[in-house]
Structures
1.
Amino acid sequence: MSPDSLATVAQAAAPITSNIALYTAWIGMFFMVALSGLGSAMGTVMDGQATIGAMKKRDDIFANCMILSALPGTQGLYGFGAFFLLKAKIVPGMSMESAVAIFGAGMIVGLVCWLSAIQQGKVVATGIESIGNGNDVFSKTLVLAVYPELYAIISFAAAFLISTGI
């Protein structure tokens, strides 16, 4: 092949590579929002069910249980917030390196928030059950529920750091 025909082939392949980069980045964004949202939904449903069960024993605990039940919902917000951090970095003609960084950030936030929301929901559901049994463990449950939350916050911070490097 002549050098001119090689240049023509390279020019023809450039849009394809650019599209692959865009698709890679958007797939990462999809996983970030979807997984963090799913985890939050699962965690809050688990806690809502525990609240309803506990209220069969004690109707006066709804306010405290409602506060606890909302905690796993924050992981979905972290995924949504990270979406806005990274969305501006997705541009036509972006490099494959940037796309892979966005994909990686999406997987980090999505998976960590998904798992931490479910595990936080388990901690909170157990606390709600104990409150329903008459134990004064609201503040202790709140403190223990912070531990899984910490890892979701760290994943959001990682997405922030990745976004500043793109």
Note: The two ends are 36 Å apart (CA to CA).
2.
Amino acid sequence: MPHLQFEMNFPADSGEKKRFAGAVVRRFSEIMDTGTDHIGITIRTFARDDMTFGRAEEADGRIVFVNADIRVGRTREQKRRLALAVMGEIEQAWGVPQRSAYVIYTEHDGEHFQLSDRVLPSWTAGEDPLADPAAAPRKGARRPARAGGAGRAKSKGPARRRSR
């Protein structure tokens, strides 16, 4: 379960946050080649003087730090593409220059991501960790469609562990 934490030194209204989070979830899914319903987003706002970033450009003094907890296995190219895409979304949503945003990745084994009904497997290309039919959502739960993944064959990566 990736968890992307955005810390900003300016206020944002709930509509802006919702649109931004939706855009980030879509970009993460596309670039990191996974489903969407296990992606967690946190947006925290602070006072202007609560954050400092030496290379930040003057854009009303706005700064955004991104802490991205992801599963091990993504390529260097995927991580770079995601960082630039997220910086672009920040700039589009709030006018923060890309030079005033900072993305920090922390990588974890799949077992470090625990949900109520399972432990996530380590990442493999083209996977959706919540698409396992043996651990499907409860009756009536809805899962968003996978971005760009319709009709793709499942990866034949390493065996996946299931929680008991």
Note: Helices lie at 14-32, 76-94.
3.
Amino acid sequence: MLEALKQWAFALVLTAVAGSIAVFISNSQNLKKYIKFACALAALAVMIAPINSLFKGLPDIFNYNKTENQEYTAEIDFDLRELIMKKSADLLEQRISVTIEQKTGIKPENIYIYSNINNNKSTEADIQVEIEKVIVEMPEEADTSQIQAYLKEILDCEIIIE
């Protein structure tokens, strides 16, 4: 990291020195303007060069080119929907578990989430995951009425606490 910073600073100083020498050697005032402009652009390019390296490891999500051998199939659509439902259920399960533990001090034993994808919209981007039923298995000492009332407030689905 420190070595890269040294190289960047050296390139910046070298650009400034080369620009100063070019301006000093030039006789014409009009030519000096263009030399200063070109040197300023070169210095700017050297200054912002490290920013490019920040984005090199990121995937290019805005330039997705479909190859010829990739075709849309129903299996891909189904797999994507299953992945969306599973990830949504996992995140909701974690959130419910943490919330119940914060409210009651007792961690649920198991949480089962039954969900479905609602695709009544016109585009695939409008897919919504609908939670149909949540089953929470609690230890014997838990106050289930308090937990059920709280979950009814935050979720619009059937809540079963066992």
Note: The CA atoms of residues 62 and 107 lie 42 Å apart.
